């Protein structure tokens, strides 16, 4: 017998019987432009970042978003992408790259950088 799944927003935002009632609702898939490398996690899960001229990637609004993950499409990475403190990485950003991220805590994010795409 097949199991019917509820609307995903209802599953993610419900209490699920745990004592911690604060749950984050799944955000829209539409990428948000990260102006000057600033990624505000309250605005979405997926991002585009134009590194023309060089930028410093920063994450904000991390408290309460532990476990959030998503994608960042970086263009012009050869111009230079620096990382703010609290960001640990696997791989170097040297061209156009797809980057995945995971919020570990309110002060730490890990990113994984793909091979150059362009």
Task: Provide structural commentary.
It is built from 1 helix and 9 strands; from the N terminus they run H-E-E-E-E-E-E-E-E-E. With about 120 residues, the chain is mainly beta. A 6-stranded mixed β-sheet has the order 1-3-5-8-9-7, with no helix packed on it. The protein has a 3-stranded parallel β-sheet with strand order 2-4-6, with no helix packed on it.
SSE layout and pairing:
Layout: H1 8-13, E1 32-33, E2 38-40, E3 46-50, E4 55-60, E5 69-75, E6 81-83, E7 87-90, E8 97-105, E9 108-113
Parallel strand pairs: 1-3, 2-4, 3-5, 4-6, 7-9
Antiparallel strand pairs: 5-8, 8-9
Low-confidence stretches: 5-15
Gross geometry: globular
Order of helices and strands: HEEEEEEEEE
Cα-based radius of gyration, to the nearest Å: 16 Å
Number of helices: 1
**Broad CATH class:** Mainly Beta
How many independent structural domains? 1
Distance between the termini: 46 Å
The SS-based structural class is: mainly beta
Give a short account of the largest sheet.
6 strands, mixed
Main attributes of the structure:
38% strand; 6-stranded mixed β-sheet; globular; mainly beta; single chain; Jelly Rolls; 118 residues; 3-stranded parallel β-sheet
């Amino acid at each position: 017998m097949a199991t019917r799944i509820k609307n995903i927003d209802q599953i993610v935002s419900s209490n699920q019987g745990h004592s911690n009632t604060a749950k984050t609702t799944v955000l829209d898939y539409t990428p948000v432009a990260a102006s000057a490398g600033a990624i505000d996690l309250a605005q979405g899960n997926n991002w585009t970042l134009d590194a023309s001229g060089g930028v410093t990637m920063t994450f904000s609004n991390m408290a309460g978003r532990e476990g959030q993950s998503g994608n960042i499409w970086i263009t012009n990475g050869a111009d230079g992408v620096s990382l703010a403190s609290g960001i640990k990485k696997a791989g170097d950003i040297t061209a156009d790259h797809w980057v995945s991220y995971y919020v570990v805590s309110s002060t730490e994010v890990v990113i994984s950088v793909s091979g150059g795409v362009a």
